Amino acid sequence: xxxxxxxxxxxxxxxxxFITWLGFVASRWRRGNLDHLHEWGLGGRRFGTLITxxxxxxxxxxxxxxxxxxxxxxxxxxxxxxxVPYTIIVYPILFVVFPRLWNVSHKRGYITSxxxxxxxxxxxxxxxxxxLAGIVATMPYIALQLVGLQVVIGxxxxxGEGWIGDLPLIxxxxxxxxxxxxxxxxxxxxxxxxxxxxxxxxxxxxxxFVPAKLGGYGAIFAAVPPQKLLLAIPGAGxxxxxxxxxxxxxxxxxxxxxxxxxxxxxxxxxSGHAVRRNAxxxxxxSFVLGLLALLGFMAIAAGVDKLPEYAGGFKTFKANFAVPAxxxxxxxxxxxxxxxxxxxxxxxxxxxxxxxxxANLFTRNIYKEFVRPDCSHVQESNMAKWMSLIVKFGAxxxxxxxxxxxxxxxxxxxxxxxxxxxPAVMFGLYTRWFNSWALLIGWAVGTGLGTWxxxxxxxxxxxxxxxQGFGIPGYTALYTLILNIxxxxxxxxxxxxxxxxxxxxxxxxxxxxxx
Amino acid sequence: MTGPGREARGGWYVLLALQFVLxxxxxxxxxxxxxxxxxxxxxxxxxLMVLVSALLTAIxxxxxERKS
Lengths: 515, 68
Prior knowledge:
Order of helices and strands of chain A: HHHHHHHHHHHHHHHHHHHHHHEEH
Radius of gyration of chain A: 23 Å
Number of domains of chain A: 1
Number of domains of chain B: 1
Number of helices of chain B: 4
Distance between the termini of chain B: 8 Å
Strand content of chain A: under 5%
Helix content of chain B: over 70%
Mean pLDDT of chain A: 88
Number of strands of chain B: 0
Number of helices of chain A: 23
Oligomer: heterodimer
Shape of chain A: globular
Low-confidence stretches of chain A: none
Largest interface: A-B, 42 and 34 residues
Structural class of chain B: mainly alpha
Strand order of the largest sheet of chain A: 1-2
C-alpha cells in the first residue's frame, strides 16, 4: 500500500490523459450550438442506437457498481447477485415505458422528466417535487463515483498526508468538471466508448485468467463458505431472504430509470426506436455485471484479505478493496493500470452525466420556472454549465469531509426518494386520471415515511414488514412506493368525487407514439 | 394502433412479462445442483436468464416493429 506501483500508475495516467483530450474535442462531434440547452445537455438528441448503447451502458453500470457489487459478494455472498435479476427486469420496463417519454419529450421539447410532469399535469409544484427528488438523489450518487475513484487511486499506492493525499482525486475532478463544462453530454458519450472497451477487456481477462490460476470455477465456489453460497432458506412465518432478494431487484429496477441521469441518456437518443433496440442490447452489460459479481468469490478463493500487503487497503476501504486487491495479486503491473483506469474512467462517465442531468433539472425546473421565466436560451445554457460545476463541487466536498459510509447510506436513501416520482412520471405517461395534488401528497407521504423508516433502522435499506405475525422483509423503497400510490389513488377518487380541482394537460394522445 | 393490430402486439408483450417470472422465481433457482463447470445452478441460471431475456426482448422488438 505504501509504495507507488510505477508501471501501473503510468498506464493509468496515460489513459486518463487520452480521455481528457477526447472529452475536450468531443465538443466538435456532431457539432451543434452549445448555447442551446438541448445541445449542451442532451447532445442535440442525435445519438443513434450504438452511441446510445455506449452512453446508457456507461451511465448505468458505474464505477461504484464495479467495486460495490463484488464487494457485497465478497462480504455477504449470494445476495449480491440480486444485481442480475434487477438488470434483467429493468429492460422490459425501458422497452415499454420509455419510448413514450422520448416521443412526448421530442414533440414538446422537454429536457427533463419534471418538464414532462409540468406539461402533463400543469402543476409546477408537482414538477418541483420531481425536480428536488432528482437533484437530492443524484448528489450522493456522484459522491459514490468519487469513492470508486478513491479506491483505485489508493490501490495504486498513491497516498499522502492531509490535502496532498486528496490531490489525485481533486485533479481527476477538475478534469471532469472542465470537459463537462465545455462539451456537455458529448464528452461522456465519447469517453463512454473508451470506458466500455476497457471494462470489457478487463472483465474477460479476469474471468479467463483468474479461474485458471485458482484451479477453475469449481475450486472458486468450493472456497466460498456454504452460508454465503446460496440465499438462506426462509424459516417458518417469514419469506426471509427470498422477499429481500426479489424486492431489492424490483425496487432497484423501478428506481433506476427514474434517476435524472437515466432520463438524460434516454432522451439524448435519436428516436424511440433506438431506445427500444437498446433494451435488447443493454443486457450485454448485465451479463458482464454478473461475471463481475463473481470477482468477489474469486477474492475469497485467492484469500487476498489475509495477505499482509493488502491489510492497509482493506482497513481503509473495507470490502470495497476486494476487487483492486484481486487485480493487484493476479496481474502484471501494466494490466493493473488498464484495469484501474477502466474503473477510474468508469467513475467519470456517470459522474459527468449525473451532473449534467442535475444541472438540466435545476435550470429548467427551478431557475427558469421560478426565478427567471424570461431568460434567453444562452442564459439558460450558461446557468446549466455553472450548475454542473456546483453539483460536482458539492459531491467532492461531501466525499472529502464526510465519512464514506454516509455516501453509501445517502445512496440507499436516494433510491427511496427517486422511486416516489414513479406515479407522476411513469403512470403519467399512460394516464392523467391521477390528480396532480393527490400525486404530490402521495409523493410527500412516501418520501417522508421512507426517510423516517430508513433513519430509524440505522439506514439499512430493508424494512422488516410483519403482517399479522407473518414477516415479509423487503426493500423500503418498494413498500413506501406502494403506500404513495395508494394515497394518490384514494385522494384522486375523493377530489374527483367532490370535483375539487382539475388539471390542464398540454400534451395530446398522439404525442406518445412515434411520428 | 387500434383494433386487431393492437391485440397482436399485446400478445407479443407476454414475452416481456415472462422475463419477470424467469428472473424472480427465487425458490426455483436457489439451489447448488445441477452445477455447470463447477458453477452452482443459482449463478449460471441467472446469467443464462440475462441472455434469454435479451433474446425475448429482441423477438418482441422485431415482431412489433414490423407491424407498426
